[in-house]
Structures are given as structure tokens and as C-alpha cells.
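C-alpha cells incoming
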């Protein structure tokens, strides 16, 4: 009974497995397209989020300015008597 080196057996097994693998000719191009699509989607999402934050900040700021610039309520129409002494 002979004991083979486990590393050599593993190397032979992996070599035989690698020889049966057929690489896809467009694997890199497909992976690159997927990466670019994800990158474009991420950038577009960040742009929309930034625009939304700026729009909400503008609306809140304009609302605050408008609410602070309201005129003071008119005084009540009460009769005021002025007494003038000679």
C-alpha cells in the first residue's frame, strides 16, 4: 500500500479539472458591462438624492423666511382719548 503525497494528488485533481473548463470568450466584457451599469445606477441615485436634499432644504428655508416676514397683526380698533391739559 503506497501513500501518495496529498499535495501532489490535489495538484493533479485541480489540473485535470482545469483542463476541462472552457472559458467564455466574452466573460470580461460582460462583467465590465455589469460593473458599469451598477456604477451608473449608483451615481444616478446619488445625484437624485443630492437634488432632493437641496430641494427640501430650499423649501424649508423659503418657508421659514416667509413665516418670519409676516406683518404684525393690526392693532384693535379701540378709541383712544387724548387729554390735553392747558
Amino acid at each position: 500500500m503506497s501513500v501518495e503525497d496529498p499535495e501532489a494528488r490535489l495538484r493533479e485533481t485541480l489540473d485535470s479539472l482545469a483542463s476541462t473548463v472552457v472559458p467564455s470568450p466574452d466573460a470580461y466584457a460582460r462583467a465590465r458591462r455589469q460593473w458599469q451599469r451598477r456604477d451608473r445606477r449608483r451615481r444616478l441615485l446619488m445625484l437624485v438624492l443630492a437634488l432632493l436634499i437641496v430641494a427640501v432644504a430650499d423649501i424649508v428655508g423659503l418657508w421659514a423666511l416667509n413665516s418670519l416676514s409676516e406683518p404684525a397683526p393690526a392693532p384693535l380698533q379701540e378709541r383712544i382719548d387724548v387729554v390735553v391739559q392747558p
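note: Helices lie at 6-20, 27-68.
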